[in-house]
Amino acid sequence: MYRAPVDEIAFALRHHAGLSQVLGDGVFSHLDDDVLDAIMGEAGRFASEEIAPLNLSGDREGAKLANGAITTPKGWKEAYAHWREGGWNGLSAPEAYGGQDLPLVVNMAAFEMWASASVAFALGPTLTMGGIEALAAHGSPELQKRYLEKLVSGEWMATMNLTEPQAGSDLSTVRTKAVPEGDGTYRLSGQKIFITFGEHDFTDNIVHLVLARLPDAPEGTRGISLFLVPKFLVNEDGTLGKRNDVICSGVEHKMGIHGSPTCTMVYGDGGAHSEVGTGAIGWLVGEENRGLNCMFTMMNNARVAIGAHGVGLCEAATQKALEYARERRQGKAKAVASEGAVAILHHADIQRELLTMKALTAASRALVYSCALAIDLAHANEDTEKKKYWQERANLLTPLAKAFSSDNAVEVTGRGVQVHGGMGFIEETGAAVFYRDARIGTIYEGTNGIQAIDLVMRKLPQSGGQHVLSYIGELSEQVDAFKASGEATAEVAARLSWGLDQLRDATVFLQEKLQAGDEQPLMAAATPYLRLFSIVLGAVLLSRGVTHDPEGQSPLLRFYAENLLAEAAGLKDRVIHGAASLDEAAKLLWKD
Amino acid sequence: MYRAPVDEIAFALRHHAGLSQVLGDGVFSHLDDDVLDAIMGEAGRFASEEIAPLNLSGDREGAKLANGAITTPKGWKEAYAHWREGGWNGLSAPEAYGGQDLPLVVNMAAFEMWASASVAFALGPTLTMGGIEALAAHGSPELQKRYLEKLVSGEWMATMNLTEPQAGSDLSTVRTKAVPEGDGTYRLSGQKIFITFGEHDFTDNIVHLVLARLPDAPEGTRGISLFLVPKFLVNEDGTLGKRNDVICSGVEHKMGIHGSPTCTMVYGDGGAHSEVGTGAIGWLVGEENRGLNCMFTMMNNARVAIGAHGVGLCEAATQKALEYARERRQGKAKAVASEGAVAILHHADIQRELLTMKALTAASRALVYSCALAIDLAHANEDTEKKKYWQERANLLTPLAKAFSSDNAVEVTGRGVQVHGGMGFIEETGAAVFYRDARIGTIYEGTNGIQAIDLVMRKLPQSGGQHVLSYIGELSEQVDAFKASGEATAEVAARLSWGLDQLRDATVFLQEKLQAGDEQPLMAAATPYLRLFSIVLGAVLLSRGVTHDPEGQSPLLRFYAENLLAEAAGLKDRVIHGAASLDEAAKLLWKD
Predict the structure, then answer these.
(1) Radius of gyration of chain B, Cα coordinates, nearest whole angstrom
(2) Does residue B555 sit within a domain?
(3) Partner B, chain A 60-99, Cβ-Cβ below 8 Å
(4) Is residue A50 in a domain?
(5) Are residues B101 and B246 in the same domain?
(6) How many angstroms separate the Cα of A60 from the Cα of each of A74, A113, B62, B195?
(7) Which helix (H) or strand (E) holds B247?
């Protein structure tokens, strides 16, 4: 069973992501070292003892729909109640609404633990967190007053309603309609699909944030507005009023995250459930036709959270495989004197497998926490220059954190199955569920292909291309400092520098294409470039821990540098040369 | 729905694997071009029309156990009956027992198609094929007479009973007992787990091939014998007699291949089912204590067959994703004039994804067919030198065919899910089932880690290390011939030669370690070396098709050479430098 690696997480926060220095600078008024350790310890306990035991049974039972109502797996509702009573839901929410106003990076470390314990369980609160951010940033004072406190306490939960059958990665074709009633409210109608926790029994009310189109709104993405549509209307005194005209009409049968209900939501069909007639009553959030911008407020942080989920899955799968490899005995190993068979962890092939898992987990964690901390620093800084600097850093790291970590979750959970041999394929063992659950992380909140395109098309050009180059320069300085510290072997240091050279070359190449407006090679190179960036960045981030704990940190960094980093050679080659064959070869794809 | 790519398969057989030249030499008396095309066409029709429609429902229903009897999913039993009536079961079985005595390579091409249609369905016949081989090679004339004809016709099916709870990758600890009765029979007792199609309703009888230990047999692998244990004893006249003392006591709840029953088999518990008292009655196959050798006869070809399954999964997943990408419309593409959204296949990122899938499928196919053809040529050649040459080639290629193809099946089916976006995660879409089914291919019939160790420890030393080096030399000559043909661009040719250089360097490095008896770096390097060998070999095999069809074959080869082959750089580096950090880093794995 999962045991939260509290010390590793705290170390990664402090030294890989750099929270230690930020705490020293006194940027976060609510956080010091003691508070950090206390929170991590308590979150780890809750995740390990109260959530993790529900994961496998939740996977087996799944979320069930009957008459528009979802029943979550046994024990989940109670665990959620206990979780929110612990104050976990408002960890990084505004103090004005009852939150603890702690940095996002702390919340992301907690989310890693919730996700290790059960990513299906962690998903609902992830969406609520996004909803709180969107409302806090864009909601009217009236809406904030009525909804935020209960969302922050977790008494109610929030959802994100974006996708429609014809509108997935491309939201420009959203069709759901919102008609103004003239009294400040709107009536919504339409169908949304793939709505996570769109309906459930955790809370009495559910606050849907819904993308829809006003009458006569411009076509495309500039005609989409964001609305708040509660499942039950909320009276002046905060009590629940009439049931709104929104209902869950179906729940998906999915490969994983069975405990998390993925719902089809119907707005405004005037069915028997509705106590408000036909048309779901909603309120505008932010400005008309600026809904996508508001939605991206919640989406961006949700992307980092999906990254944190990926780290959690990596960690849980690695722990499980490690436990098995220590106990399962098969074969002999030359280096081990033994009568019978030895634990498979003595076999070099298994060691390579588990160290790969551990290294990818550590790199994903370092990257996700670094991204979350950049978001925090963008918020915390008032100074325009610094704010811009951290905002651009956060923008740059978000697609990396989301995609690298969720890709690694697929890889690491797969290796976890493999280490178990035949037992890994048996559901009761509990390795398969991580693998099935991990597979959605590369898809939702923007597929990893979309993340890569975002990285190349929107993040590389930041500040005229200077932001990314100066960041690579900073990373080079860190490697130089690492060399100077005397803790780096010449081999490892050389490999880190070499990795940064590959990244710089690929970056310069893509920036030339950007300047030339030559789109095809950019789009073709996006995915390998994202991987290249991440695998190199992961190594440099891990190296930052070595000076703080040479004995504990050097061995894994060396393994990473000498086993994983060389992937960068092939990736750079693909970035630069991979697109040339594409047009001709793609013709094959249209032939029968 | 899957449509068998009959022309592609026939082309791969002829030109990637080299069957065309072999047919020209007249090595196979039963096969000519017309027969080949007819068989492929008819197998393709059967797979597409009669098996494929049963896959998704079979996954949903699964195989169900009640009172020791398994019910397979609806329609499966009838499909099997129809399949065996078509003569497919005996395609490469001995003519003397009613088989068609066609080369294994033809059968593997057919198995690719059965597996594309439903790998869970294809598994049962895969095991029967292995059983036929073991009996034909090692069974007494008496056993052959009584069992082979009905196994070849498919009236009965066979199983392989190796694994026990404590004996998986390491069979030395097999505990199942066999006690001689003095009349030529033995009484077996013990428990076997993970027995594919150990019990089912396809056939009236099931012929189990079981590893067990005689009383006073030496410990370890040299004390294991192979026995034939029928579910029902067979009378002199071939009719079924008493129910033997063997029963299925459980069926696993697995991540995939739900339609294929994975059984726990209990031998000799003297339960109510037994009509022979206590102890399952069995007959020795081959010599006493030589059971592992006999089992490897069936295991080796089963490994190639698992490779063929991997190809089938790659093909099916690629077809499905391609179909979706042609139809699903999202976003705009600069190169395409369009009012609304364009098919996602116009996006370069999706093209890269699908071409990667197509290239890995083609390379896996070329490798698996080449391996099967080598086995055929080892059988067909009487001349000692040639026989040895082809036997060593088959030995070398078997772990590559099994591991590369099953690894690629995981990767390609995963990319297939990804191309579908959110729809890929929904079970009804039918992309997820390929992904779940593929995950077992890297585990059973020897995990891919075991394949890699087999490659490095047993196959590299063949003929004092000369076999593999001369093969790499042959591949270099093929690349030179390709250059000379005028069909290769300088870029592609240079990349192929570069790839072979990486492979040669890594091979020489490992052979030095072999000579020095330095085991740890060999074991640590095994998995990346297997991948390196396969990715380079795949490119060279594909290049052999270009001179036969430059227009059709060049674009994919170029894509492969310029996008996938560069992976070899990192792999070679890992082979040579990856082991050094392992001992120190592995200490982390023992810490809490």
Answers:
(1) 24
(2) yes
(3) none
(4) no
(5) yes
(6) 10, 21, 15, 24
(7) strand B246-251
Give the count of domains, chain A.
Answer: 2
- Kindly state the greatest CA–CA separation across chain B: 84
**A436-491: pLDDT as tens digits:** 999 999 999 999 999 999 999 999 999 999 999 999 999 999 999 999 999 999 99
The answer to whether B247 touches B68, Cβ cutoff 8 Å, is: yes
Q: How far is it, in rounded angstroms, from Cα B228 to Cα B176?
A: 13
Using only C-alpha atoms, what is the Rg of chain A? 24
**Do B56 and B195 share a domain, yes or no?**
yes
* Partner residue facing B519 (CB), from A256, A334, A426: A334
| Domain limits for position A255 | 157-289
Question: Quick check: is B445 catalytic?
Answer: yes
Structure tokens at B287: 């010599």
Tell me the average confidence (pLDDT) per consecutive run of 10 residues in chain B, 592 residues long.
Answer: 97 98 90 97 98 98 97 98 98 96 97 98 97 96 97 98 95 97 98 98 98 96 97 96 98 98 98 98 97 86 97 98 97 85 96 98 98 96 94 98 98 98 98 98 97 98 98 98 94 98 98 97 98 98 97 97 98 98 95 76
A163 in Cβ contact with B422 (< 8 Å):
yes
A11 touches chain B (CB under 8 A): no
**B17 lies in the same domain as B165:** yes
Amino acid identity for residue B81 in this structure: A
**B159 close to A (CB below 8 A):** no
Last residue of a domain, one of B294, B320, B346: B320
- In total, the C-beta contacts within 8 angstroms joining chain A to chain B are 258
Q: Angle, nearest 10°, between helix axes B348-380 and A519-546?
A: 80
Placement of tokens 């998986």 in the chain: B168
Contact A564, A359 (CB under 8 A): yes
Q: Is residue A41 part of a domain?
A: no
CB distance from A253 to chain B under 8 Å?
A: yes
Does the pLDDT at position A138 exceed 90? yes
Q: Does A105 touch chain B (CB under 8 A)?
A: no
The domain spanning residue B140 has which CATH number? 2.40.110.20
pTM of the shown model: 0.98
What's the number of CA atoms in the CB half-sphere (13 Å) around residue A5?
Answer: 24
Q: Which of A323, A349, A356, A491 to mutate to test the interface with B (most CBs of B within 10 A)?
A: A349
Cα gap A515→A461, rounded to integer Å: 9
What is the rounded CA–CA span in Å between residue B135 and residue A85?
A: 66
Which residues 311-330 of B have a C-beta within 8 angstroms of A? 322, 325-326, 329-330
Inter-residue contact B542 to B370 (CB < 8 Å): no
Residue with tokens 């016709």: B153
| Residue whose pair of structure tokens reads 């939260």 in the numeric block | A4
Question: How many Å apart are CA A157 and CA A105, to the nearest integer?
Answer: 21
Give dist(CA B407, CA B419) in Å, integer: 19
- Taking the C-alpha atoms of residue A524 and residue A577, their distance in angstroms, rounded to an integer, is 10
Q: Of A439, A555, A579, which has the smallest distance from its Cβ to B417's Cβ?
A: A439
Domain boundary among A273, A289, A305: A289
Find chain A residues with C-beta within 8 A of B194's C-beta: 422
Residue in A112, A149, A445, A487 annotated catalytic: A445
CA distance B535 to B571: 10
From chain A, the residues in CB contact with B447 under 8 A are: 418, 421
- Which residue is associated with the tokens 């109640």? A81
Answer whether B432 sits within 8 Å of A326, measured CB to CB.
no
Return d(Cα B174, Cα B159) in angstroms, integer.
Answer: 17
What ipTM was reported for this prediction?
A: 0.97
Beta-carbon contacts of residue A302 (< 8 Å; ≥ 6 apart): A126, A127, A129, A130, A160, A445
Does any domain span residue A218?
yes
Which residues of chain B make contact with A432, given a CB cutoff of 8 A?
254-255, 439
